[in-house]
Write a structure and sequence with these properties.
Largest sheet of chain B: 6 strands, mixed
Radius of gyration of chain A: 36 Å
Strand order of the largest sheet of chain B: 6-7-8-3-9-10
Number of strands of chain A: 36
Shape of chain A: elongated
Number of domains of chain A: 2
Number of helices of chain B: 11
Helix content of chain A: 25-40%
Number of helices of chain A: 16
Helix content of chain B: 25-40%
Largest interface: A-B, 31 and 35 residues
Low-confidence stretches of chain B: 1-21
CATH architecture of the largest domain in chain A: Orthogonal Bundle
Strand content of chain A: 25-35%
Low-confidence stretches of chain A: none
CATH topology of the largest domain in chain A: MetI-like fold
Oligomer: heterodimer
């Protein structure tokens, strides 16, 4: 029998350990750097390649040559010679290539000519799976947009950009003027909507920014929304202009990203996926990121400094953003580095054994492709499943795109080019908040009732009260959560003063009755049989609580009067008072509701265990104390509670553990918004609720999936540490107050 | 609280100088006692216990002697469904007087239990417990009480160097003497002892018995015991109970040498019980 028990015990320990190892195993990949394999090398026909890209299945390259021709090259399965060009779509007749801009995120070339014309070529790949093989047949095509002629002087244009926003399309380029200066010209492309679909693109209003410019422009970028231009000057200053459908331009902002580096000169700037962040490079390899953020004081979106990256060993040679996430690949000489914008982490870096002409990230983020200066193509397979994860992402304050300031935040998804926010900190704070409010309500009620029931109540009544409390513990938490979310939360949030006064009323009522009781003449007081006194406290306490509830409305109309704009008059509203006077948020499903509902779930546990431990204090101690003339209260306080301290402490810890892991009540009774304060009038999102809420979004072995395991791991560590600490304390208490055997 | 105690002490020391004219200090009159409302365990008891004497209650298990003892300081109060008829008076005052607070009654009556029950506190705190709950916390007074009580319980020499150590470090006999010291710390008038030696070895028992001899100079002692020799050795008067009835009550010598009732004789000579 003992053998059986031991096997059981050991296997439980093994099982818990196994769960721990399993969770750890699940979260390990989150902290791994990118793994990049040895290169597979191809020889590409040397035609003077300016820039290249690749289709999603990595079967076909496209290259732009110095001659201005666009070629497609099928990639063989193994390394070796890349076959001759298969498709040749040269430039239109007299278009003499002067400069190009390669938008790697969208496989798009923006080309300029010597006489001020701009052409936009979009490369499309269609994948045909009808062959039945794993690799589809890839068919390229080119979408040519209408040619735009900037200005009237037919002077060379360069550095052209094209942006197709939802509302506005924009073509812009730098252009030399007659007097040796450089200007920025922009044209709006319009497209009429017809009953038969969108009409042909037409060239609309044009703008010349010459008068607005404050220096010699070197590079421009167009915002993804097509209504803004970022101009970089040779001296490193940046200016941000807005442009509307009538091509009216206005200067919005000017800044110097290299202010910290004296004497730095501008080299290049590029967007990261999502077109919210620009990385600025100077000529030494120093690079910083600025992102657009909504500035409340200005009520508009401006660029703010966000990230600084480790310097490159030399000037930037090539830059490529990923189109899957916020990583980007930069090279200088034979050095290449893959960085993540969000956490500034280096995912991978190396000195390669060839000089890099251009490097790109494969569209599926599964390879890095390098073209060296000797026309050889090096494909390095890459495994980096969780680029956005890591200690910084989980625990550090981060400045995210679109928001000013470094914050902790959790927002696991929001679209393809969305910056995921995976901080554990607000979830940990939410967990603590929920637990603290639950314990705040549960502990006094549970402990006081346990003391009362074990030390004062008549045994015959105790036999009724205790099982009733234990039935409370078996109430499914989904029911508690449902009641709390649907029924309790509107009541509480509409009558906070009443609820507060009612709760206070119960205590005050009980205390006043107690005081009156001790002042009563003996002949009344002593006629009440021992253990029945509660009967006389209950009524007045409930009555005072009822008065408190009624009085709450009066208090609200008296102290918390606020002007209601929708009604056009003053009303007594605690809710409005909290929002307007304290400046706090107020949600209907808030921490108070959670406190009450969770309290309901936790009270029976704490009550039962601590009542047991107090009842289990040897009767000899109680009798001994009573026989020495101590009152029941003195006996409880001086003998019973210290002796039962270890058990009471266990009860608190088990209650705490229940509260910390409670999920259903948290999911249903709170709004699950991520908050980081201990405001009683807002909800919270706890680690456990987060797992429950997000589990349906988590693709197996994806970043979110593993991050949810990390939530579980943290919860596990929370409770494990807490329980270990509690057990040590309990042992100590037990030793200190051990009963004589 | 402290004031009334002082008056009581003064009243008692006056009584000590002038031997009490009231020989029957505790009077039990027509006392019936029931558990669960109807289960009668004591039947029509009439018993007078003299002051500053040792009175022993003997009888087989379940005869009600402990129940009677525990009625004297109303320790039965917390049991559900108890009921009594008749009366018990101490010094002429009924202990069931509705105007009497049970706490003040218990302050006048010390009690020593069958199993020693020191609190999980230091030796010192065990002794002064009754004073602390009465709100008396003056260090000098407490120190004095500790020494006096421990000397009174013949324990001072053994523990004077470790007063702040846990009471659980004492031997069984020492613990029981500590409980006696604790019971007499607040100078009660009556000391109830419920089989105080049943868990002790003969040497420890001897020490406690000697102690009882000393204590009766100051206290009225009622002792419940299973041990006939002990009753014979320590008590002045002995009451023999059987099945909740008082069979015989007399001078100890008479009960043991020349019992008036054959049941008493059978019991004291060891033929049953």
């Amino acid at each position: 029998m003992t053998g059986l028990i031991m096997v059981g015990g050991v296997s439980i320990i093994v099982a818990v350990f196994f769960i721990f190892v399993f969770i750890a195993f699940k979260i390990m990949p989150l902290f791994r750097a990118a793994e990049v394999s040895e290169a597979q090398t191809f020889v590409v026909p040397d035609k003077g390649i300016l820039s290249f890209g690749v289709d999603e299945s990595r079967q076909m390259l496209y290259v732009l040559t110095e001659a201005g021709d666009l070629y497609f090259l099928p990639l063989a399965e193994e390394g070796g010679e890349v076959p001759a060009f298969t498709v040749d779509a040269g430039l239109a007749g007299d278009f003499e290539l002067h400069s190009f801009y390669h938008d790697l995120q969208r496989d798009r070339f923006v080309l300029t000519s010597n006489d001020g014309r701009v052409q936009v070529k979009e490369i499309r790949f269609t994948q045909d799976f009808s062959g039945g093989t794993a690799n589809p047949v890839v068919r390229p095509s080119i979408n040519l947009l209408p040619e735009v002629r900037l200005g009237t002087e037919n002077r060379p244009a360069f550095g052209a950009v094209y942006s197709a926003g939802d509302r506005q399309r924009l073509v812009a380029a730098l252009q030399e003027t007659g007097d040796g200066r450089t200007t920025v010209r922009a044209a709006i492309l319009t497209q009429r909507r017809t009953p038969f679909g969108p009409g042909p693109l037409q060239i609309g209003a044009q703008a010349d920014l010459l008068d607005l410019l404050s220096g010699e422009p070197k590079q421009i970028l167009a915002l993804g929304t097509g209504d803004g231009l970022v101009v970089a000057y040779t001296d490193g200053r940046i200016e941000f202009f807005s442009i509307n459908a009538q091509a009216e331009t206005r200067r919005v902002q000017g800044f110097d990203p290299f202010a910290e580096r004296t004497g730095a000169s501008f080299s290049r700037m590029e967007f990261i996926l999502g077109d919210q962040t620009i990385v600025f490079f100077d000529e030494t390899g120093y690079h910083v990121a600025w992102n657009l953020a909504f500035i409340p004081e200005e009520a508009r979106r401006l660029f703010i400094p966000s990230k600084t990256f480790d310097d490159l060993p030399g000037p930037l040679e090539s830059f490529a953003p990923s189109r899957r996430n916020k990583t980007f690949l930069v090279t200088s000489g034979n050095f290449a580095r893959l960085s993540l914008l969000t956490t500034m982490a280096t995912r991978w870096q190396a000195n390669l054994d060839f000089d890099i002409h251009q490097a790109i990230i494969a569209p599926r983020y599964d390879a890095l492709i390098f073209l060296d200066t000797r026309s050889r193509l090096h494909i390095k397979e890459m495994v980096d499943d969780h680029p956005i994860a890591g200690f910084t992402a989980f625990f550090a304050r981060i400045q995210y795109e679109g928001r000013p300031g470094r914050i902790w935040d959790w927002q696991s998804d929001g679209g393809a080019d969305f910056e995921r926010k995976l901080s554990m900190v607000p979830l940990m704070i939410g967990t603590l908040k929920g637990t603290v409010y639950a314990m705040f309500i549960a502990v006094p009620i549970a402990l006081l009732s346990a003391v009362y029931v074990s030390q004062f109540l008549r045994p015959s009544l105790k036999r009724v009260v205790k099982p009733t409390m234990e039935i409370m513990a078996s109430l499914p938490s989904v029911i508690l959560g449902f009641f709390a979310g649907m029924w309790l939360s509107p009541i509480i949030s509409n009558a906070v003063p009443s609820v507060m006064l009612a709760v206070i009323g119960i205590f005050v009522g009980a205390l006043i009755t107690g005081l009156v009781w001790t002042r009563l003449p003996k002949h009344i007081r002593l006629r009440v049989p021992t253990g029945w006194e509660f009967f006389f406290v209950l009524g007045p306490a409930l009555f005072v609580a009822f008065l408190g509830w009624q009085f709450g409305q009066v208090v609200e109309n008296w102290l918390f009067v606020q002007y209601d704009e929708s009604l056009g008059r003053d009303v007594g509203s605690f809710r409005m008072w909290v929002v307007q006077v304290l400046g706090w948020d107020f949600e209907t499903r808030n921490a108070l509701v959670v406190g009450f509902a969770m309290g309901f779930a936790v009270i029976p546990i704490i009550f039962t265990i601590s009542e047991d431990s107090m009842s289990n204090v040897p009767n000899a101690f109680r009798s001994g104390s009573l026989a020495l003339g101590a009152s029941r209260w003195q006996t409880a306080m001086r003998i019973v509670i210290p002796t039962a301290a270890a058990g009471i402490f266990s009860a608190l810890m088990i209650g705490f553990g229940r509260a910390i892991g409670e999920t259903m009540i948290m999911v249903m009774a709170t709004g699950n918004a991520v908050v980081q304060d201990f405001n009683p009038f807002t909800g919270m999102r706890t680690l456990s609720a987060n797992i429950a809420v997000e589990i349906s979004e988590a693709e197996q072995n994806g970043t979110l999936y593993r991050t949810l395991f990390l939530c579980a791991f943290i919860l596990f560590v929370f409770t494990f540490t807490l329980n270990t600490f509690a057990e040590l304390l309990r042992q100590w208490l037990r030793k200190r107050y051990r009963a004589v055997e | 609280m402290s004031h009334s105690f002082q008056t009581k002490v003064q009243a008692r020391s006056a009584a000590e100088k002038e031997p009490s004219t009231q020989p029957d200090f505790i009077q039990v009159r027509d006392f019936n006692f029931y558990y669960d409302g109807h289960k009668q365990v004591l039947f029509d008891l009439n018993l007078d216990i003299p002051k500053q004497k040792v009175t022993a209650f003997i009888g087989p298990s379940g005869c009600g002697k402990s129940t009677l003892l525990r009625n004297i300081n109303r320790m039965n109060d917390l049991i559900d469904g108890i009921r009594h008829e008749g009366d018990i008076t101490i010094d002429g005052h009924s202990i069931f007087d509705p105007l009497l607070e049970v706490i003040s009654l218990r302050k006048r009556i010390g009690m020593v239990f069958q199993k020693s029950n020191p609190f999980p506190k230091s030796i010192y705190e065990n002794i002064v417990y009754s004073l602390r709950v009465a709100g008396r916390n003056r260090k000098a007074e407490l120190d004095e009480v500790v020494e006096r009580s421990l000397r009174g319980a013949a324990l001072w020499e053994e523990v004077k160097d470790r007063l702040q150590e846990s009471a659980f470090g004492l031997s069984g006999g020492q613990m029981q003497r500590l409980c006696i010291a604790r019971a007499i710390a607040n100078r009660p008038e009556i000391l109830l002892m419920d089989e105080p030696c049943s868990a002790l070895d003969p040497i420890a028992t001897g020490k406690v018995e000697n102690l009882i001899h000393e204590l009766k100079k100051e206290f009225t002692i009622v002792i419940v015991t299973h041990n006939m020799q002990q009753a014979a050795r320590v008590s002045d008067r002995t009451a023999f109970f059987y099945l909740g009835k008082l069979i015989e009550y007399d001078e100890t010598e008479k009960i043991f040498m020349n019992p008036g009732n054959p049941q008493t004789e059978a019991y004291v000579s060891g033929r049953f019980g």
